[in-house]
Write a structure and sequence with these properties.
Layout (H helix, E strand, L loop, with lengths): L4 H6 L2 H17 L5 H5 L8 H13 L3 E2 L8 E2 L1 H11 L7 H11 L6 H16 L2 E5 L7 E8 L5 E7 L4 E6 L7 H15 L4 H14 L6 H14 E2 L2 E2 L3 E4 L1 H7 L3 H16 L4 H5 L8 E4 L11 E9 L5 E10 L4 H22 L1
Antiparallel strand pairs: 1-2, 3-9, 3-12, 4-5, 5-6, 7-8, 10-11, 11-12
Helix pairs in contact: 2-4, 2-5, 6-7, 6-14, 7-14, 8-10, 9-10
Length: 354
């Protein structure tokens, strides 16, 4: 992301107001804004011709664009970035929105994953976008592991932890796996798992595979290696991404091109293996970050924007993130404070429960 302040400093009061009203109107209804429409809303009484000249200057600066001849202007990605960074006014989170988010975190559910699923559902409902919630990794010792063959290219791993937590994860096994090879792999893992977290078990498996390579069936070994590639990222335990509100994005899409971009977005999500990328988006520390269009390295092909904030545990360590994804004309002024509020609330909830 580039610093837009030098461009902003070049704008006089009239240009700044024209720019702000074009962007606000576009974010509200998604339509290009014409000069005649703007003349009725500007604080200064000027002619439509004067406004057209200002809009042409803003277009020359790369802040506005004309989708069609004589069809008004819309903000460019650069324009949206400058608006978000230097012009947008943040709203306070309304009492109604606070109550909806507080109700999910303040529920009597003990399962953090279930609470975060409810948080995602509430966030999606409030923002009318798709919510993303990255849950913290589970670090209790593993009690039992089981692989279930679901078909030629699908399998299920069931992880039972010593604290009673159970996780079911569907993954694509290496080619050639059979139910018997999966049982052999599960037996091998269970012999090593007792008393160890997934992080510790991963290191033990690597050591055992090295020292006992000849004792393990080739296909079962392949399953172990590939299975753990899905469970864990380099040096980190697997994080689980919860997605809520996909239908909101589809409802917002008014044409086939938009629908195709949204489908591309969720294809990205379905295919995503290295979910840790989502957390890396927040690696500069505390606070909300906004990724507009191609700035969004996770979903750059979708033409969408991502508003994301990390949440932290009691040690001030980033352990997960919450966010909202939607079209580039998101209501940033409302959504940014809501995401920030949710992240802080989730962090306090995680700290209290731990």
């Amino acid at each position: 992301m580039t610093d837009q302040s030098p461009i902003l400093d070049e704008l006089n009061d009239r240009s700044r107001e024209v720019f702000r009203r074009v962007v606000e109107s576009y974010l509200h209804d998604g339509e290009p804004v014409g000069s005649r429409t703007l003349t009725r809303t500007l604080s200064e009484k000027v002619s439509a011709a004067t406004v057209r000249n200002v809009m042409q200057d803003l277009e020359f600066m790369g802040l506005l664009d004309s989708p069609h001849v004589s069809a008004g202007r819309i903000p460019t990605q650069q324009g949206l970035r400058m608006f978000v960074d230097g012009v947008m006014e943040m709203r306070d989170v309304s009492r109604d929105d606070q109550d909806k988010i507080n109700a999910t975190v303040g529920s009597n559910q003990k399962d953090v994953g279930a609470i975060l699923g409810s948080v995602g559902k509430a966030l999606s409902g409030i923002t009318r976008g798709a919510s993303l919630v990255l849950t913290p990794k589970h670090e209790a010792p593993v009690k039992h592991i089981e692989f279930v063959h679901l078909g030629q290219d699908r399998a299920l791993v069931v992880l039972v932890f010593a604290d009673g937590h159970v996780e079911n994860r569907v993954f694509q096994p290496p080619a050639g796996q059979t139910p018997s090879s999966m049982r052999e792999a599960a037996n091998f893992l269970n012999a090593l798992a007792e008393g160890h977290t997934l992080s510790e078990l991963r290191n033990r498996v690597k050591h055992e595979i090295t020292t006992r390579r000849q004792e393990i069936d080739v296909l079962a070994r392949d399953l172990v290696e590939n299975g753990f590639a899905l469970w864990e990222n380099e040096g980190e335990s697997y994080e689980r991404l919860i997605v809520r509100g996909q239908s909101n994005l589809l409802e917002e899409s008014g044409n086939s091109e938009d629908l195709e971009r949204i489908r591309s977005l969720f294809d990205d999500l379905e295919r995503k293996r290295d979910i840790a990328d989502f957390l890396e988006l927040t690696d500069t520390g505390e606070g909300v970050r906004i990724f507009i269009g191609s700035e969004n390295k996770l979903f750059s092909l979708s033409g969408s924007s991502l508003v994301v904030s990390p949440y932290m545990n009691s040690d001030r360590k980033i352990i997960g993130a919450v966010g909202v994804i939607g079209p580039t004309r998101l209501n940033y002024g409302r959504i940014v404070p809501v995401v920030d509020y949710t992240a802080q609330l989730v962090g306090r909830m995680i700290s209290d429960k731990s």
